[in-house]
Amino acid sequence: MHRIGNLKALRERLSAMNVSAIIIPTNDPHFGEYTQDHYKVREWLSGFNGSAGTLVVTLKDAALWTDSRYFVQAAAQLQGSSIKLMRMKMEGTPSISQWILQQYPEGELVAIDRSLFSYSEYEALCSDLAPCKVQLIDDIFDGLWEGRPQLKFNPIIWLDRKYTGESSRSKHERITRALGLQDERFAYIVAMCDEVAWLCNIRGTDIEYNPLPQSYAIITNAAIHLFADLGSISDEVKAHLLNDGVELHPYSSFSELLAQLPAGTIRIASKSRTTVRDYMAMDAPGVRILEDPIRGGAVNYYKSIKNNWEKDGFCKAFLADGIAWCKVLKFIDDNLAAGNALNEWEIGEKFAQFRREDSNYRGESFEPIVAFGPAGALPHYSATKESSQIVGKNSFLLMDTGAHYIFGTTDTTRTIPVGELSQAQRRHYTLVLKGMIRLSMACFPKNTRGSQLDILARGPLFNDGAMYFHGTGHGIGHYLCVHEGPQSIRMEENPVTLEPGMVISNEPAVYIEGEYGIRTENVILVQEWKHNNVNEFYNFKTLTLVPVDLSPVEWDLLDAQESEWIRKYNLHVYETLVPHLAEEHAQWMREKYLG
């Protein structure tokens, strides 16, 4: 009931400001997937804690927009709050602007926080909300949210060149050349924390599940300027940064310095990744602001193409993670065979426990998804210690987890059968596996986009009248964010082509609401394959080293090439892991996955 009181206090504040509505996003000024607790205003007001969603509060109503991953979760968490759930991309669901205009067709003031919306979002809202007017405001919640968490700044870590393979000075030179502005004074704005971390070869622990320091950067002709909490940088790290051509500034001075850039300096900034506050700070009469000339952003693009050191690090990370997965899978198998009760949260904790045995482990890369039966149909289900199901019978246990190691980041999903399965369950399991295999085997020419390959993963399900709504593949960072761009494999068009060195997930799925979910996810690396007088061709190398349970497979649904691929994959996983396993784990793995 406290949420109702929070909404009431907010409405009183809006009324005092002569504002009729406020739009509250999930993000922070850096537009990352995860935010510090300080920015979780939407959750404080609504009770919905999913990673994606936008809350709109008017003087008389409230509604929350979220995507299909969170429909069930949001419906449960919004109960008793008076907040309506708006299911995005579903027929009959109005957009945020349409819903506000339904309430205020004559036009009113609609507030947005200038530090939480990108400039492109601001421009779109100004157009879409007319005759309503957008009112830019600063954060108003410090005075409303009693006990609001403060921003935290933890020690910043220097990542040695033996892991990164390239100095910040070299990255600066490459990006400067790519921008083509060597003869003109420029300032390239970097607001995304993972881009700053890659650029400066630093990591941190300011943001849950993301090994990042809260930070900004500006690239100029002469140097990289890092804006971070100076008290979090040790003398040793400071020496590394200065020696590598990185100049240091206080985190809080970023917007101020943008406003002080000389008029003749060309500003390069993406409207979609720069806040209204920061875009307006550097805008002035006679100033030239250019959009980033490289698709997906120059820093983001070069970060996505892993060098040999980074690729080698990924291989080490997936080896370490494969060992931990093997131990977890045997733990589950042994306990279920003995009739012991296992719950979802306990299994999620086992992953972290076994991963910690490796000294290079640096934490989970996202909140573990361990879901039995109907919970598996919720793509981003998260069990807690207090509300965790017991693993039952005659359904699937879906496990999607990943980890950070100092040399790479992992993300793997396996769905395992528990008890007897129905014919429909076995068929769905096989079709999901078939899609994963078909994408793994893809060979494609240079300049291929992810949307052109997406049908390989979805096709087997489409042919059966089934589908999934999320993307098939997302980029994965090198000891960075588990979800990164600019590349993707999904139905929606993305102009960024797949290039050698890009690391991306391969995760087809099917979800039967109220019954079960199935997802099989490997991580794949784009690599060169053939070059001839026709074109350059690429294919994928699978990095994941976790066996796939073949007991539910309906083999007549796989062709001979697909059957051979998955059997060879399990053999490769076994042969790679076995030198690092105790005999009891090696024997168990032989019997279960190679039989």
How would you characterize this protein structure?
By secondary structure, the chain is an alpha+beta fold. The chain folds into three domains: 136 residues, Creatine Amidinohydrolase, Chain A, domain 1 (3-Layer(aba) Sandwich); 147 residues, Creatinase/prolidase N-terminal domain (Creatine Amidinohydrolase, Chain A, domain 1, 3-Layer(aba) Sandwich), CATH 3.40.350; 289 residues, Creatine Amidinohydrolase (Alpha-Beta Complex), CATH 3.90.230.10. Helices cover 34% and strands 21% of the residues. It has 18 helices and 28 strands. Helix 13 crosses helix 14 and helix 15 runs antiparallel to helix 16. The longest helix is centred in the middle third of the chain and has 30 residues. It is globular and about 70 Å long.
List keywords for this structure.
six-stranded mixed sheet; alpha+beta; 595 residues; Creatine Amidinohydrolase; single chain; 28 strands; Creatine Amidinohydrolase, Chain A, domain 1
Rg (CA only):
25 Å
Distance between the termini: 56 Å
Average pLDDT number: 95
Residue runs with pLDDT of under 50 for 5 or more positions = none
Number of strands: 28
Q: By helix and strand content, what is the structural category?
A: alpha+beta
CATH topology of the largest domain: Creatine Amidinohydrolase
- Rough outline: globular
CATH superfamily (homologous) name of the largest domain = Creatinase/methionine aminopeptidase superfamily
Quaternary state of the chains: single chain
The total of helices stands at 18
CATH level 1 class label of the largest domain: Alpha Beta
CATH architecture label of the largest domain? Alpha-Beta Complex
Strand order of the largest sheet: 4-3-2-1-5-6
**Helical residues, percent:** 25-40%
Strand content: 15-25%
Q: How many structurally independent domains?
A: 3
